[in-house]
C-alpha cells in the first residue's frame, strides 16, 4: 500500500500542485485487485477498483454512502459487481456477440502514468487516471483498437467527477455506445422523485422501446421502470430523497441520454446478485450515449463527463 497527496499526484500529472491537499491511496482489495481510495480534507471519499474502472463507493463529508451495492453482489474478478458506477463500453444492453453492457466493466484497468492533458478545474483535489486497451480476446469479438481513459476526481466540496475519453487508434472508423451505470442508494424508492426529465421523449424498454413523451413534472416510482430519456437538457437531473433529506444533482457533457431503471419486486427476485427486497433501496440514473451511437474516425477522440453533487434538501 502507498499513499500520495493530491499535490504530488498533480505534480506527476500536470506539473502543478494544489495547496488544499486531498489524498490518493493505492492498495488492494481482498481478492488482490488494485483499489484506489480518494479522500478530501472534509472527510468525503471515493473508492475505485481497477477491475472495470468501477467506482465502488462515494461518501460525502457526513460519512453517508451515496451509492448502492447489493448485499448479494458477487465479489469476483470474473464478474462485474452489482452496484456503484460501472463503465459500460462499447455497448449498453445486449447486442450481437458482446457481453451485456460491454466488456470494459469486466476487465483489469491500469493506472495511467502519463495521460495526455485532461480538462481541469480549480475544484479538483484528489484524482486518479486509469487506462484500458483491448485484449486479444476483445479484438476477436469487437475488432477495433482503442484507448479508453478515465479520470475519477473528488473535489474539496465532496463532488465526484468522472471523465472518459475514447480514442480510435484503429485504421478504420468504429461506433459505440456508452453509459455510466450508476446505482444510487435511496431510503425508499416510493419516497424518491427524479426531476429534470419533464417533456422529454423516452424509449420504454418495457414496451419494446416504444417512444413516449414524459408528461409529469417529476418521475416517481410505483412499479418497474426501464427507460432511456433522449436529448436531456444540460441543466441537470435531480434525484430527490425525501426521507434522507438530500438531493443528488447529475450534470453531464457528451452524454445526451439518461437511463432510469428500477427492477421492482418481480424482476428483483429473478436477479441472482440482487436481494429480493433491495429494489426499495436503489435507483439507477445513468448519464449515457445510447440512441445515437458515437462514431470515431481513425485518430479521433470522444469525451464524456459526469458531475455528481449532493446537497441537503427539505
UniProtKB/TrEMBL annotation:
It catalyses: alpha-D-glucose 6-phosphate = beta-D-glucose 6-phosphate. Keywords: Isomerase. The keyword Isomerase applies. Its EC number is 5.1.3.15. GO terms for biological process: carbohydrate metabolic process. InterPro entries: Aldose_1/G6P_1-epimerase, G6P_1-epimerase, Gal_mutarotase_sf_dom, GH-type_carb-bd. One of its GO terms (cellular component) is cytoplasm. CDD domains: D-hex-6-P-epi_like. One of its GO terms (molecular function) is glucose-6-phosphate 1-epimerase activity. Belongs to the glucose-6-phosphate 1-epimerase family. PANTHER family: APOSPORY-ASSOCIATED PROTEIN C-RELATED (PTHR11122), GLUCOSE-6-PHOSPHATE 1-EPIMERASE (PTHR11122:SF31). This is glucose-6-phosphate 1-epimerase.
Amino acid at each position: 500500500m502507498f499513499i500520495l497527496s493530491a499535490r504530488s499526484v498533480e505534480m506527476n500529472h500536470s506539473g502543478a500542485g494544489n495547496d488544499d491537499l486531498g489524498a490518493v491511496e493505492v492498495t488492494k482489495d481482498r481478492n488482490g485487485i488494485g483499489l484506489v481510495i480518494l479522500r478530501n480534507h472534509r472527510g468525503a471519499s471515493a473508492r475505485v477498483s481497477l477491475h472495470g474502472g468501477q467506482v465502488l463507493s462515494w461518501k460525502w463529508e457526513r460519512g453517508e454512502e451515496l451509492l448502492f451495492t447489493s448485499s448479494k453482489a458477487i465479489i469476483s474478478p470474473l464478474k462485474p459487481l452489482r452496484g456503484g458506477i460501472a463503465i459500460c463500453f462499447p455497448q449498453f444492453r445486449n447486442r450481437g456477440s458482446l457481453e451485456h453492457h460491454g466488456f470494459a466493466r469486466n476487465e483489469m484497468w491500469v493506472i495511467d502514468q502519463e495521460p495526455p492533458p485532461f480538462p481541469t478545474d480549480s475544484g479538483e483535489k484528489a484524482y486518479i487516471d486509469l487506462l484500458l486497451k483491448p485484449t486479444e480476446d476483445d479484438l476477436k469479438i469487437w475488432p477495433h483498437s482503442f484507448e479508453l481513459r478515465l479520470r475519477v476526481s473528488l473535489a474539496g466540496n465532496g463532488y465526484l467527477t468522472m471523465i472518459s475519453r475514447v480514442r480510435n487508434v484503429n485504421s478504420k472508423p468504429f461506433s459505440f455506445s456508452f453509459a455510466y451505470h450508476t446505482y444510487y442508494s435511496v431510503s425508499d424508492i416510493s419516497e424518491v422523485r427524479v426531476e429534470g426529465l419533464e417533456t422529454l421523449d423516452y424509449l420504454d424498454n418495457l414496451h419494446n422501446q416504444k417512444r413516449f413523451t414524459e408528461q409529469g413534472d417529476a418521475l416517481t416510482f410505483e412499479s418497474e421502470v426501464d427507460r432511456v430519456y433522449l436529448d436531456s437538457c444540460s441543466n441537470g437531473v435531480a434525484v430527490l430523497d425525501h426521507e434522507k433529506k438530500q438531493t443528488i444533482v447529475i450534470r453531464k457533457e457528451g452524454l445526451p441520454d439518461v437511463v432510469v431503471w428500477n427492477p421492482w419486486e418481480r424482476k428483483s427476485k429473478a436477479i441472482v446478485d440482487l436481494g429480493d427486497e433491495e429494489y426499495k433501496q436503489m435507483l439507477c440514473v445513468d448519464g449515457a450515449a445510447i440512441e445515437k451511437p458515437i462514431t470515431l474516425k481513425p485518430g479521433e477522440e470522444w469525451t464524456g463527463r459526469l458531475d455528481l453533487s449532493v446537497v441537503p434538501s427539505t
